[in-house]
Structure prediction request, 837 residues.
Amino acid sequence: MSDPVLSPEAAAAPSAAPTSAVPTQRRRQVPETAALVVVLLALGIFFSITSEFFLNYDNFVNILTAAAVTGIIAAPATMLLIAGQFDLSVGSAAAFCGAVLASLALHNDIYYSVVIAVLAGIGIGLLNGFLVTMIGINALITTLGTLAVFRGLTQVLTDGQTLSIEQFSWATSRPLFDIPVPVFMFAGIALLFWFMSGYTVFGRSMYAIGANAAAARLNGIRSKRVIWIGFVLSGLCIAIGGLILASQLGAASPQAATGLELSVVTAVILGGASLAGGRGTIGGTMLGLLIIGTLNNGLVLLNVSSFWQTVAQGALLIFAVSFDQLRIRLTSN
Amino acid sequence: MPEPETAAEPFRLQARAIRKSFGGVEVLHGVDLDAAGGSVLALLGENGAGKSTLVRILAGDHAPDSGEIVAGGEAHAALDPVTARALGVRMIFQELSDAPALTVAENISLGRWPGGRGLVRWKQVRERAVRALDELGVDIDPGRPVAELRIGERQAVEIARAISDRARCLILDEPTAALSGQEVERLFAAVRRLRERGTALIYITHRLDEVVEIADRVQVLRDGAVVLERPVPGTSRADLVTAMVGREVGEVTRPKAHETDTAAAPRLAFEGAACEGAFTGVDLEVRPGEVVALYGKLGSGTAEVAETAFGLRSLTAGTCRLRGDEHAPRAPHQAIAAGVGLVPADRQREGTFMVRSVAENISVPSWTRLSRSGLLGRRQEARAYRRWHDELSIRSRNDPEQLISTLSGGNQQKVVLGRWLERESDVLLLIEPTRGVDVGARMEIYREIRKLAGKGMGVLVATSDYEEVVQLADRAAVMARGKIVGVLGGDEITTERLAELAGG
Prediction:
């Protein structure tokens, strides 16, 4: 039975203790991130032993390349989850941006098409943000709805066909150290969001809203505006992700980025962002992302069927969420 | 006893040598309790004395670390909620646990639907409700949705639910906190009826006059131990206060009179202010350096007055002025920008960011000022925290990164107060500032509030605790049913005068 709201007295009783001897966040957070590093290393060692193709530079670049789009979208998703918000529409929205680009590029200048595709992403963010903050619908439901809407619109736009895009292969070029462009973009965006979440009033407000929405309001934080901006940033990053996918493929597929929301949410929660809000770091998400990337890569190298990869990813999400629940229970007691 | 219960032996609920710890801190040190059928036992104690923990153990919500519970002659090492209920032990919480969308009758039968094979017999549901409400002597239509009832009526429905479920011991946790004078009378009448029926009643309160009026025996807890247990007749208020607080006190002491500049222009002023459904015709001024209390029972409108000055609700008539200018904030961020701060009543739910650090908690409303063009480092926050750590004597490790949840309630509240110092607000609104804070810390918080006023802040305290008013206020306006019914100044402020004015 869950405790009904405690009377002030009962709530105060346990905390009436002296302030010593209680573990601090810092002491607790170090092992948390450390645990992720340990898991990552363990996976690395396991696959190095079981597959002769795992341990080499090209394969690492492959892992990073495969993780780039997920990572670019997971960065704003981390900030949203810190504020207690979700964006499930990421996959279909990215596909939609790709489809906008491809359908426009058939008859228009490519730069013009890119601009419109990016605006489409921002528009999706504005829409999600509007529905969540102004209409006040739960973010999970809102973005589940927009997930379906934009997947459907992508199919309408492409008529269910894969549309090829000419002269748009920039994302496959490797300007430095044989590393493709999207990996650099991923690194840049991760860095930007790391800075934003830790060192700007905007980012810190996200933590405050997630930690206690009512208190955030009473401290003068304009929560609706902050969350709305968060969704718009998510939309922008989704557009970037969609453009990278379209470029890598040389085409816009109506099925592009299906299930991307699963990878994003898994990475974010695995990385330590709490479903209860108010906690999480971009660095943690990046570690979570690398774990998923390494797992997928290793399973491919071991010739495990992609069906089983989906199973593994779902299981990983459930594991991450259970771990989070355990942590919430430990810290709230 | 006028009418012995049908059973030969009246029901008796006893706790023996109960010990209980939370997080390595023992909060009950071997406590006994004896509640006999047909009598009312008042359980008295300050916040944090262990009352709630003790009764929760009796109701099966917590398991004691050691000791035993004897109910109806059977000894148990611990009760769980189902067993406690089967034994007839029921608790009525301060926060009502009813289902507002359902009718009175449905609430009374909630979870015990008459009928069989998964079907509900609605006629029996209604009859059962009528019987229970009659027994309690209250007149409520069983067909009405609970959401439409007044708070006292909803409480009566909960009690009716308990007695229709054959409750033999009823635990009431500060049942009058939210009731009007009339509703209190009705509650007391119901309690007396239950006593005559042979129910054992445990009545938790911190109001001394209620003990005298309703209880047969009184037991005082202090710091997790029983410090007094005796029949009410022959026990003076002074005895009870001394037992609760643990030292000789002249009940509550007034601070030394403060010279406030009565000629100074008011910081905050309400003129004929009204907010529909909450209060009307409020005229009130708060001058710099002055602590003004707005006293009234819960629901009398005191908190709402404070909330209008913070943009949480808007006036429907009259004006609010800040430093002479019209002040009509539409949201808290506007009020904060105008120099107003608010300390909410429910610290956990609205005050603190529990999973965040103390430095962050103290600097949130000042973020925009501490930052340079939107950029904000931990160092600025840490500096903000260190500025107030000593000044407010916050007991912590003096580590800005320490989680606020690891501080005691009183120290958390100091951090919340410190926010508005850091923000340099010049009007501070406090709603029930010491709810859930233990006695010692309460005195410290009063001192800090005093200090803030000393710096020239205008302080408005909305509270339902008259002792707080006596200990804190330079001036006190008393509210009842949304209207100011009297204003007291200086030494006129006594618990008796306040209680009398707030009356019914």
Remarks:
- The CA atoms of residues 173 and 180 of chain A lie 5 Å apart.
- Residues 67-258+275-280 of chain A form one domain.
- The mean pLDDT of chain A is 83.
